Amino acid sequence: MIVMSIAGVDPSAGAGVFADLKTFQAIGVYGTGIVTALTAQNPYKFFSTLPVSPEYISEQIDSVMDSYEVKFIKTGMMYSPEIIKLVGQKIKEYDLKAVVDPVMVATSGGDLTKEDIANAINKYLLPNAVLTTPNVSEAEKLSGVKIKNKDDAIKACEKIRCDSLITGGHLDGWNTINIDGEVSFKKQELIDTENLHGTGCNLSAAIVAFLAKNNDLHTSILKSLDYVYEGIKNGNYGTLIAKI
């Protein structure tokens, strides 16, 4: 089973493509990685971003698809509307099943994008995605709904243009799952820790890995939420062995 991450590079390897590849390996699938941008950052501080051209991102994707049969992918940091549009076109061209992590700001606080890209994500990625995994802030940008409680999260789900998982880190641990218009919740204990760098990346990568292992979408989400919870608690995703 071969999967793909299309995202930026975090040199500390806690987030981005490097983190995704570790998660893929931990869950037992072979991961390929397409680089959309380089960043200089660590878990506590963001320095800068250097984007890759859309043309070279396209060539990277084509080179992998030339040799491997990939069905499930995730997208992370896209940096610009031009890159988002290109990736959306590639998803359609290769009939890929995409989980979209709508990354806009690094956990360490740095702006990862050239401009507000929520409109581009809504236009080019979400109509072609099987799931998006925004945190509360990202879900507000995608939906235009201010989220302060579970009812607001349900309203936001109705506005988001594909199935969604709104993560509960800023909603008292309530994760809001919307699949085919059916909304459910998964409550998780909030852990008092600074070990949160890359949690969104690892979550979306885990969902892709579990989907590739023939789990349905709801099961993949639940298993991935448990995987990330254990990663936060233990402080290391790369050494986790998923029990599947």
Describe this structure in words.
The structure is a single chain. With 244 residues, the chain is of the alpha/beta class. It is built from eight helices and nine strands. The strands form two sheets. Strands 3-2-1-4-5-6 form a six-stranded mixed β-sheet, sandwiched between helices. Helix 4 links the parallel strand 5 and strand 6. It is globular. The C terminus is likely disordered.
Task: Itemize the secondary structure elements and their pairings.
Blueprint: E1 2-9, H1 16-27, E2 30-41, E3 46-51, H2 54-67, E4 72-75, H3 81-93, E5 97-100, H4 118-125, E6 129-132, H5 136-143, H6 150-159, E7 164-166, E8 174-179, E9 182-187, H7 199-212, H8 217-234
Parallel strand pairs: 1-2, 1-4, 4-5, 5-6
Antiparallel strand pairs: 2-3, 7-8, 8-9
What's the short story on this structure?
This protein has about 240 residues and is α/β, with parallel strands linked by helices. Helix content is about 40%, strand content about 20%.
3D shape? globular
What is the string of helix and strand elements?
A: EHEEHEHEHEHHEEEHH
Q: What is the number of beta strands?
A: 9
Identify low-pLDDT runs.
Answer: 237-244
